[in-house]
Structures are given as structure tokens and as C-alpha cells.
## 1
Amino acid sequence: MAVEKKLDGLRSLSVGEVARRSGVAVSTLHFYESKGLIASTRSAGNQRRYPALVLRSIAIIKVAQRTGIPLEEIKSALGRYPPNSKLSAAQWREMSSAWRDSLNARIRTLEALRDSLDDCIGCGCLSLEDCPLRNPGDALGKEGSGPRILEGPGIN
């Protein structure tokens, strides 16, 4: 197995082992690294090596992505701490509470969208003068008759 011991005693994992243990593809690890979400070092043979603590960072990234938090927000939150560090319970509470307002706003928006769908007939606003989703207050009616959204600039 491609596990090395560093001088400081922390385990170092190959990119393949991190992928296997975290459940994400190697290409995803490379992507996360290119975005500055995780960091690796290079072995004497120029192979990527990650500290075992990177698995915690990847778990946080996956949970945050699942809730719809954009990668830039995740990067900003993780950037408050040293790369691949072990977050304390207090640090996790701080990070998660910073996301709470954004998530609550997103939940309110989704609930409003869900509740508005009952009045939508899925027509692209061809029949409704007042569509709460795409044409609130019939703003498009001021531009003329017909399917204004579908007949927008550059649409044939």
C-alpha cells in the first residue's frame, strides 16, 4: 500500500488511497486541489501525497456541496484554518453557523418556489398573464403579446 511515514509521524496517503477512502474520484481530488480546497505535497518520486487529515476536509466539502453551498464559500470557510488541519468542535460550529443563514435563505426560496408550482402549468408563460415564477405582475406583457420568454433575443 502506498502509505509513507513522515518525519513528524503523520501518515501520508497516495492520491489513489485518498480517492478510495473518501469515495471521490482521483479527478475530483485534483479538481479540489486546483481550487485550493485541499493541498498535497510531492514525494521524492514526484507523486502526490496527502496527510490523512485531508479525509476530514473532503468529508466537509462533500457535506457542504450536498447542501448546495458553492465551492467558493466552502473554500472561504476552510481558508480560515491551516490546510488539512483537524478542526475542533468549536471551529466546526463556527463554520457551520456561518453557513446557516445562507442555507436558511435557500430553504425559504425553495419553499416559496415549491408553493408557487401549484399555479404553474408548465407552459413557459404562454397562457398565464401573471406567472409567479417567470412573469410576476405580468411584466413581460408590457413588451408585447405572445410568448415573450421564448421569443427573446437570439431565439428562433
## 2
Amino acid sequence: MEVIAIQKSALDGMKNELKELLEITKSATEKYASIFNKEKWLDNQEVCLMMKITKRTLQTYKDKGILSNSRLNRKNYYKLSDVKTLLEAGQPYNTDTDGFNN
């Protein structure tokens, strides 16, 4: 076991810096915590599996405004409630290339 001796004032300074860093981290994450705690978010793969659609169909849903998404660190996320709403509607959207809903 190695023992390192430092002055009490240096130790107190490090403690204070750590406390400040913890406070900064808490304040930075507090404003986003309510967003993620209230709603479950899904990524592309989870949405495709849940809806039984391809990634291309999911992209079409996004392009046509059928399913909204949010981006975080270049990754798309979807609200579970939005996906459930679309599923309950029976996916009435035909995404054929002609652009018309059938």
C-alpha cells in the first residue's frame, strides 16, 4: 500500500473543486431530466422492431411528417407515445412512391 501525504489545505481545495464540479453537472442535467423522465424515447431500431417496418419506411414517415423525432448526438429518437399513437391508428399511411394515401 502506498501512502501519499498532502497538506490539509490542498485536500480541502480539491474537495471544494469536486463539490463545484458536482453542482455544475447537476445544474446542467436538471433542465433535461424532466424531458427524459416523463417520456420514454426509442431509437431507430426499436421503432422499426416495434412497428414491424423497415428503416426506409421509418425514414419516409419522418420525411412526410407522420412521425416526429428529435436528434441527439446525430442519433434520432422518437417518443414512445407517438409510436403507440401511430400503431393504434393502424398505420393508415401508404408510403408508395406516387405520394398518395390509399
## 3
Amino acid sequence: MDLKLRQCFIAVDDHDKALAFYRDVLGLEVRNDVGFEGMRWVTVGSPLQPDVEIVLEPPGASPDASPADRLAIAQLLAKGMLRGVIFTTADCDALYSRVEESGADVIQEPTDQPYGVRDCAFRDPAGNLLRFMERAGA
């Protein structure tokens, strides 16, 4: 079976703040910015991975989500309880310094893990957990 990841989705409550973080701090490129029926989807990705995209979407964007579902998702997002993504980097410490300087919420300073990576963690402006890992010997 020939499978590849194409897109993943992250809920954000303010696309402009999310763009300032993902584009200006992390250096991801904006690939699409679409509005539809009062909602907005922004697609970003690493220049190093032109075929993989992160879609920054409104909380509860599914057309099948009930108003109660949308409210529950928005509340979980506000608490930082929704999952984010894990990025790899060649220099965890340099990335940490850059993201910390932006004022992002630090969850974990760079740490050597027993499973062979050095990683750190932050929350994006919406509260999503983002981890950044450097493989040992990278």
C-alpha cells in the first residue's frame, strides 16, 4: 500500500494570530487562505515538504457538528486540550530560542529524552500543543 500524509488539521480561534505564529515565527509558507460561509481556512506548510500541509481551521468546522459540539470543541480549545502536531528540526535549541522570543507559551524547554530525541514544546496562540524534536545524531 502506498500511503503518504497530505494534510492535517489544527483548530484555531483567531487566524490572524495563528498566521503570525505559523508563518512569521515558525517560517511556514501560506499556501491557501479561503473564506466560506463566514468561516476561514488557512493552509500552511514547510518549504521543505511541498506535499504536506497543515490546515488551520475554525473550531467545530465540520458541517455535521451540532451547536453543542461546536461549543464543546471551542471550550476544549480554550483549555488547550486539543492535540497539535510534532515537527522535526535540525537544531532544537535554536528553534526553542526563536519561538520563546516570540512570547509563545513554553511547555517544555529543550530536553534530551531517553528514547533518542531532544525536544521542546510550546502552545500556539490558540492553545494547541506543538512539539519540536531533533533526532540524536541529526
## 4
Amino acid sequence: MKTALKYSFICLALLTLNAEAQVPGLANCTRSANLLACIDGNGNAYSVNTVGSTIYLRGFEKAGNRYWAQTNSRYGQLTFFTGIASDGEAWVGYNRRVGWTTINRFSSSGGSSAKFTCSRITGC
């Protein structure tokens, strides 16, 4: 779950890239108006599709050999997300922006849970 969550955060961060952008060490991505598709150096693939204030994430995690999907719904500074993987694991959580800081919390059916804060200055 933590790997899938990491890729979903990376995908959201990559939304600001230009079409066919390449970020050394992260991923090779192609972007259209609403869709961002990426493949990283480890063989993981993922895509981000935006429809209004909803973001749909889909991906393949090479290490776990599983597919996953996540839906994020944004309400102002608060984003709720739910996801499921092909092995049956499900997760829920939220992100809340406060200035330059993001407060993140999630839990999964696999027993993982975490609360962490990320800052544009200090990272996560």
C-alpha cells in the first residue's frame, strides 16, 4: 500500500509537467489536456485523469505485481481518496492543505496506517 500511495503522490506532483516531460530519476511522462501517463525506471506505470475536481489514478506496481486504482475528490483545501488493488487491498485517506503544508492521513485493509505532514520547504 505504501508503494501505491507513494506513486499516487508522485502522480499528483507530476501534474504540473509539460507534455512529454522527462524528469531524471522519476519517470517518463506524456500529457494531454486531462491525462498524464507515466512509466518509471523500475517498470511501474501509472496514469492520472482529471474530471472537474475529481482525479482518477490508475497504475501497475511492479514490485507487488499488482494493479491499483484510486479516486480523489477535492473540496476546497481538503481531498478525500479511496483506492483498491488487484490483490484485494483497499485504502482510504485524506490530504488537507494549510498554506504550504499538507497534512496527510491514510489507512488500509492490509493494516497500514499513517499520518504525516509535507512542506514545500522541508519535504515530507
